Amino acid sequence: xxxxxxxxxxxxxxxxxxxxxxxxxxxxxxxxxxxxxxxxxxxxxxxxxxxxxxxxxxxxxxxxxxxxxxxxxxxxxxxxxxxxxxxxxxxxxxxxxxxxxxxxxxxxxxxxxxxxxxxxxxxxxxxxxxxxxxxxxxxxxxxxxxxxxxxxxxxxxxxxxxxxxxxxxxxxxxxxxxxxxxxxxxxxxxxxxxxxxxxxxxxxxxxxxxxxxxxxxxxxxxxxxxxxxxxxxxxxxxxxxxx
Length: 243
Hints:
Elements: E1 2-8, E2 11-17, H1 41-62, E3 66-70, H2 79-96, E4 101-108, E5 114-121, E6 130-132, E7 135-138, H3 142-145, H4 147-152, E8 157-161, H5 167-178, E9 192-193, E10 201-204, H6 206-215, E11 222-228, E12 232-240
Antiparallel strand pairs: 1-2, 1-10, 2-12, 3-5, 3-8, 4-5, 4-9, 6-7, 11-12
Helix pairs in contact: 1-5
């Protein structure tokens, strides 16, 4: 029986595995993936899960981020160019704001134009608009100063304040699912995270067993059980960290 502890943001997952995975690795020959086909469904699920973990961890460490949308002025159907442009933007952003951290996911509009949805941490919140639903109740300074737009340098930039709600993670992650069948995105990273962005905490072994004992008396918000041909029975309980 193995115990695995995972924490991302205020979410705690404690997983019991009947059989620990084998230490033996089987190396398959490297086969160039088919760039014309859709991404594998298990790969998309994994990427979406990682996105949620990282957003929750980022909100816990840095607080509320800015929600941004980056669009292109001209033709925006070249995935390689879009990918490189986003990378350069993240570099310029870090030059302007050394503590900045960012996470982006692409989306394809109905007209076939690439744009990016993302979160910016450790930037002045006054840059973003304040919204109530779809209505803007206060304009941010980005509308006048155009600081982020100049760093982007490719088109329109929309910047909004957020309250750091966990819903942000699901909002961003949904674009990973939407883009999963876009073969155009095979030429780019579907999830681009800046270097140094917080990660989930994962613990195994005796420390995980001790943490499990501490959480056993508590009531989980979610329980799941399943079976795996390699790992046997799997039980997972999810908790919210005490404040």
